[in-house]
Amino acid sequence: MTDRPDASQIWMGPLVAVAHDGMSRPRIGIAGISIESSTFSPHISGDEAFTVRTGAELLAYYPFLERGRPLRDAAEWIPLTHGRSLPGGAVAPTTYLRMKEAIIEGISAHGPFDGFFFDIHGAMSVVGMQDAEADLASAVRDALGPDTLISASMDLHGNVSRELLDEVDLITCYRMAPHEDWLNTKERAAHHLLDRLRGAGGTDPLRRRPYKAWVPVPVLLPGEKTSTRLDPAKRIYAQVPDVEALPGVVDAAIWVGYAWADEPRCQAAVVVTGDERGTIAREAEKLARLYWNAREDFAFVGPAASLGDALDRALADGAARPYVISDSGDNPTAGGAGDVSWTLGELLARPDLTDGARTVIYASVFDPGAVAEAVAAGTGAAVELSVGGRVDAGPRGPVALGGEIVSITEGDDDAGTQVVVRAGSVYAIVTERRKPFHHLDDFRMLGLEPESADVVIVKIGYLEPELYALAADWTLALTPGGVDQDLLRLGHRHLAPGVVPFDTSVPDPDLTPAVSRRGEEDHA
């Protein structure tokens, strides 16, 4: 494994002392919507996709705001409403409007606020909209008024349009992919907000707002090519905390952008915030140029191959066990529908997997109808099921899965009821609802032991930490689906001009930062 920072060691240090005329206990609202949405998936994320937290439940979502913690005691936190979903397809307009209206109504009912913690992902697509986060941020700003400081926390796979940037005062994102620092990032966003309200930068309302140096970088790559476990992303992201530590700098952030949405805002971006205009402009351009200059160096985080080649490697005599394969094209944590059945069909068609001599675990396909049939048949029964391909038919549609029901497990918060069907050597997991399989206990609860399997195939891209540790060897299989890693075959049509690798006609883009502060005229 490659050495990388331990997220548990990332911390902000003490809050700044309250300045004269600073706010010792400001009122801070909390709200947002978080989802990553593939516009290439036919899946629609409706009300059922979102977990909506309000009040005490929302406050408890943030461990750094527990009673007795410094941030909790430094402000009066007013949790409004937050919707969070597993990545999926674009959000249904009625679902988005319902959550948006709940946020605005909460601001009206519980305001005014001195500050606002705006917890978003940055890659939410809504059917019929081009920049959903900017629309939400604009509505939040209108409801809060011009003087409330807004601090946005985002995923590094989000998108930073100028329209979004202009509505917030502070903005940051994760620095690790996989996202082991996701909570640290939210804490940093809240910490910076409190520092500014307590007087960092000055107690005048305008001076509380830092300058923002923003550079869109015309590169759009999948997360599986930009993992911070490996160079060049590892090397580039290592510069971010060094920039943040410079005098006059509040925060520095690099966004990879979201590759599976077809919108003009989808590209990489750099934002450095602070009080020294010259410093933040210089450092933003430096980070942007590091990213741009490395654009040809980004490679898949692991060995990549077709599914057939990946299976040949995994099943070869002498292959390391367990061998993990990423079924990357239908990864539900990137926005895949989760029911593409192509890979399962390929497994069932292989002659070397029909005799039951091996253990090949496949996670997973969601199909509530197939699960209901299996439950009716019962554990140990022989069944003939038609599985998957109902939301995203992909290249295959439903697959015939005949075999023995090994286990039926009910009550999972994400998956609902889960069944395991053995067909020869293949142990196929079929779930009632979409679920990612990131933890070993996800398998163990079904009666499967991933450590003793020959091959474990998971709908995922780069491996999450427990799978990464499990894998004696692994391959990233380039499979079809709504989050296909071969971006050029997806058919983007609405990206900004010059975004690599879709358009290589601009060999030397202008990476001069736009520097602005809310309340002042923008400067180039």
In this structure, how is the largest beta sheet organized? Answer: 9 strands, mixed
Q: Structural class of the secondary elements?
A: alpha/beta
- Rg, rounded, reads 24 Å
Beta percentage is: 15-25%
Average pLDDT over all residues: 95
Q: Fraction of residues in helices?
A: 25-40%
What is the distance, rounded to the nearest whole angstrom, between the alpha carbons of the first and last residues? 43 Å
- In the sheet with the most strands, the strands line up as 12-20-13-19-14-18-17-16-15
What is the domain total for the residues? 2
Identify low-pLDDT runs: none
Overall shape: globular
In short:
With 524 residues, the chain is of the alpha/beta class. It folds into 2 domains: 25-299 and 511-516, no CATH class; 304-484, no CATH class.
Features:
alpha/beta; about 525 residues; 9-stranded mixed sheet; 2 domains
What would you say this structure looks like, in words?
The chain is an alpha/beta fold. The chain has two domains: 25-299 and 511-516, no CATH class; 304-484, no CATH class. The protein is 25% helix and 23% strand. The chain has 15 helices and 21 strands. The protein has helices at 55-60, 70-73, 93-110, 132-144, 162-167, 182-198, 205-208, 233-237, 240-244, 277-293, 307-315, 342-349, 368-377, 440-444, 465-470, and strands at residues 27-34, 37-38, 50-54, 76-85, 88-89, 115-119, 149-154, 170-173, 211-217, 249-255, 268-274, 304-305, 323-327, 360-366, 382-387, 399-412, 416-423, 426-431, 455-458, 473-477, 514-516. Strands 12-20-13-19-14-18-17-16-15 form a nine-stranded mixed β-sheet. The chain has a six-stranded mixed β-sheet with strand order 3-4-1-6-7-8, sandwiched between helices. A four-stranded antiparallel β-sheet has the order 10-11-9-21. Strand 6 (115-119), helix 4 (132-144) and strand 7 (149-154) form a beta-alpha-beta unit. Helix 3 (93-110) runs parallel beside helix 4. The longest helix has 18 residues, at 93-110. The radius of gyration is 24 Å and the shape is globular. The two termini are 43 Å apart. 53% of the residues are buried. The mean pLDDT is 95.
